[in-house]
């Protein structure tokens, strides 16, 4: 049986995750500070020291295959941004990331006591929008021409989920 689970990112996985984040076919969809950059284990360690971030390793049948991040965690307003990547392209189209996003959303609402999660995708990243929709997020708006993708300005499409809408286990 194939099992998808998430766990807190630990230092022994920093090298693997830094490799994924350094791939241009992955980081091209992230915020500008990650795009076209080489990620390092030091950058990951610094990101994890910041209380506004949480990073989770995704495993598929025990194999590390992706990353889910919470950023901009705001305890006072009970909100955070969720982001994700699949590091092992051979596992695409299996619903792994959508399931992992659901698991981190449940953890965010139950353990961190957040009330709202949001994410954004570039309008030309159809696969990422499908991940969010499958995980139970809904489209809530867009900022026009707010991201550079493949040398052109595209819209950022925003999605959100509130605690009451989170799918149960």
For the record, what is the CATH homologous superfamily label? Gcn5-related N-acetyltransferase (GNAT)
**Count of all domains:** 1
Please state the structural category. Answer: alpha+beta
CATH topology: Aminopeptidase
Largest sheet: 7 strands, mixed
Architecture overview:
With 169 residues, this protein is α+β, with helices and mostly antiparallel strands. It has a single domain (4-165), classed as 3-Layer(aba) Sandwich (Aminopeptidase), CATH 3.40.630. Helices cover 28% and strands 37% of the residues. The chain has five helices and seven strands; from the N terminus they run E-H-H-H-E-E-E-H-E-H-E-E. The chain has helices at residues 14-22, 24-27, 41-49, 96-110, 126-135; strands spanning 4-8, 54-60, 63-74, 79-86, 116-122, 138-149, 152-162. Strands 1-2-3-4-5-7-6 form a seven-stranded mixed β-sheet, sandwiched between helices. Strand 6 and strand 7 form a beta hairpin. Helix 1 packs across helix 3 (41-49) and helix 4 (96-110) crosses helix 5 (126-135). 30% of the residues are buried.
What structural keywords apply?
169 residues, 37% strand, 5 helices, alpha+beta, Aminopeptidase
Write the layout of secondary structure elements.
Blueprint: E1 4-8, H1 14-22, H2 24-27, H3 41-49, E2 54-60, E3 63-74, E4 79-86, H4 96-110, E5 116-122, H5 126-135, E6 138-149, E7 152-162
Parallel strand pairs: 4-5
Antiparallel strand pairs: 1-2, 2-3, 3-4, 5-7, 6-7
């Amino acid at each position: 049986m194939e099992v998808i689970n998430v766990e807190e990112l630990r230092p022994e996985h920093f090298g693997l995750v830094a490799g994924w984040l350094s791939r241009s076919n992955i980081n091209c969809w992230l915020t500008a500070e990650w795009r076209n950059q080489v990620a390092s284990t030091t950058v990951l360690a610094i990101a994890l020291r910041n209380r506004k971030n949480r990073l989770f390793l995704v495993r598929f049948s025990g194999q590390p295959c992706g990353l889910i991040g919470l950023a901009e965690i705001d305890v006072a307003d009970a909100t955070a941004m969720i982001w994700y990547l699949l590091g092992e392209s051979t596992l695409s189209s299996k619903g792994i990331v959508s399931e992992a996003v659901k698991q981190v959303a449940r953890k965010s609402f139950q353990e961190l006591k957040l009330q709202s999660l949001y994410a954004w995708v570039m309008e030309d990243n159809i696969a990422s929008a499908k991940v969010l929709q499958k995980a139970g997020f809904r489209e809530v708006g867009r900022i026009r021409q707010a991201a550079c993708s493949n040398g052109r300005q595209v819209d950022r499409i925003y999605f959100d989920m509130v605690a009451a809408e989170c799918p149960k286990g």
